[in-house]
Each structure stands twice: as structure tokens, then as C-alpha cells.
Design goal:
By secondary structure, this protein is of the alpha/beta class. The chain is 43% helix and 16% strand. The strands form 2 sheets. Strands 5-6-7-8-10-9 form a 6-stranded mixed β-sheet. The protein has a 4-stranded parallel β-sheet with strand order 2-1-3-4. The mean pLDDT is 94.
């Protein structure tokens, strides 16, 4: 390890295939210089608050990967952090993924950037569409998506439930609406794709208990991200992306669902112009 890498300590965010790949890089090239609590999506800086402060006291630089900032506004720790992320304002088709950022920060040789890492990065930035654009085979696409769902902890039972939810989908003007009893939209967003045997969609809204998820045009994703406080978004913006939010009441859920239906309705958008 170089002296630069010795000064860094990495803190890993929510589990998916990209985060698993980042851990693999760190195990090989920065062993002993990372902390991984195997957190789920939605991981926060406060999940590592004690460890981050200790690293700073030890004279090292904390590198936080896809951890949402829930520190107090005046917390001086924030100024000490190196932030790696590819969501919210840091998302985009021209922005490096978190995996690419870690690879660069470690100063690794280009020949270590394998095809598998290329596929993982493409998957994280633009899902199946970007993997196809980089020349991935159908078999590679299926494998990467299977690995990603497994890394997220999605079970075979949840995949069966996702297929059932897809079968019960409702088509609205410009929008496919799916109601699910599960807490994750990932399997639905995968298994509805034609490349993975599904019927496809133009824009997709998944309604879950206490949560909403939208997949579709980047303009709509950005509109939701800018208008719904505390929501999250990412993807290959400004072309395509994803958005999600927690909802605290049926009234809030219904209000946002109506907003999404209006923005996806071609007749409504034409009238707005």
C-alpha cells in the first residue's frame, strides 16, 4: 500500500453488488483500512459516528461511501470527510460511480479494472440499458442482475411475489402502476424488463407499504427529487433514473401518486406547455 492509502479509512454503505465489489477491492488493496457493518440501503453517517470520530483522532481520513448525511449542521466532523456517492446531486450519466471513485482513490493500475467491474459500474449507473450499451451479452445482464438482487438480500420468495405483482399491474396514461406488499421495488424493476422476461414499461410506479418508487424519464425523476423533501434519486440522469421516498400516511401517499400520474400523462404535460 502507498502512504496515501495508509491515511484513508473507508466506511461502507448499504449492501448491493456495487458495495460488495467495493469491499472486494478494499480487501485486496487496503486490508485493515475499512469498516463494513453490512448495512441495508438508507445507511447513514450516524451508523458509523463513533468509528468515524476515532479514525479522525487517529490522524486518518474517513472516506464515507453512500452514507446519507444526518449529522448536525454545525458538526465539525463533516469537514474531515471524503464523500463518495453517485446519488442525488452526484448522480448522472457522465458522473463516476462509487466503484469507479474508490478505484481511482486507491490509485490502482488500469489493467485491474476488469470486465466484471465495468459491468458492475454500468449496472449501477444505468441498470440494464447501460449494460446493453457497453456490449454486455444477455447472459452477462441476467447474471449481474441476479448477483445484485442477491447482494441486496432479495429472496426467491420475494422474486415470486414480484412476478405476481407485475401480473397485476395497472396501465395508466404514460405510466405502469404496480402495488406490492413487499418493501423493495428492486425485483419488480428487474423482472418487468423485456431483457429479463417481463412485459416492459415506459414509466413505472411501485406502491409499497410506507414507500413509493418511480423508474423512468430523467426529467420526471429530477422533478420528483426537487419537489419531494427527503426523497432519494439516481441513475443515468438526465436521460433515465429512479426515485423513491418514504410516506408517513395514506394521504401523503395518495397526493404523491396523483402528482406522478399527472406528470406522466401525455395529455396533461402537453397542456402544461
Amino acid at each position: 500500500m502507498t502512504q496515501t492509502r495508509h491515511t484513508l479509512h473507508f466506511f461502507l454503505g448499504g449492501q448491493d453488488l456495487e458495495m460488495r465489489s467495493i469491499r472486494e477491492l478494499l480487501e485486496q488493496h487496503a486490508p485493515g483500512h475499512f469498516t463494513d457493518k453490512h448495512l441495508a440501503w438508507g445507511a447513514r453517517l450516524s451508523d458509523y459516528a463513533t468509528e468515524i470520530r476515532q479514525v479522525i483522532r487517529d490522524g486518518k481520513i474517513p472516506v464515507v461511501i453512500e452514507l446519507s448525511d444526518d449529522l448536525a449542521n454545525d458538526d465539525p466532523v463533516r469537514e474531515k470527510l471524503v464523500i463518495i456517492d453517485h446519488h442525488g446531486p452526484l448522480a448522472g450519466s457522465d458522473k463516476p460511480t462509487s466503484l469507479e471513485q474508490v478505484f481511482s482513490l486507491l490509485g490502482l493500475a488500469p489493467q485491474l479494472w476488469t470486465r466484471h467491474y465495468r459491468l458492475v459500474a454500468a449496472n449501477d449507473r444505468g441498470h440494464v440499458a447501460e449494460m446493453k450499451a457497453m456490449g454486455a451479452t444477455p447472459e452477462e445482464i441476467v447474471t449481474i442482475r441476479q448477483l445484485d438482487r442477491k447482494a441486496q438480500g432479495i429472496s426467491p420468495g420475494q422474486e415470486t411475489e414480484a412476478r405476481q405483482a407485475i401480473a397485476g399491474r395497472k396501465e395508466k396514461p404514460g405510466l405502469t402502476v404496480i402495488r406490492s406488499t413487499g418493501s423493495s421495488s428492486s425485483a419488480i424493476a428487474d423482472l418487468i424488463l423485456p431483457e429479463l422476461g417481463g412485459p416492459g414499461y415506459h414509466n413505472l410506479l411501485v406502491i409499497m407499504p410506507g414507500k413509493l418508487a418511480f423508474f423512468g424519464g430523467g426529467e420526471k425523476v429530477m422533478e420528483l427529487g426537487n419537489s419531494i423533501p427527503h426523497s432519494w434519486y439516481g441513475g443515468a440522469l438526465p436521460e433515465q433514473g429512479f426515485w423513491g421516498t418514504a410516506v408517513s400516511s395514506p394521504e401523503e401517499r395518495n397526493r404523491i401518486v396523483r402528482q406522478i400520474m399527472k406528470m406522466c400523462d401525455p395529455d396533461n404535460r402537453q397542456a402544461r406547455r
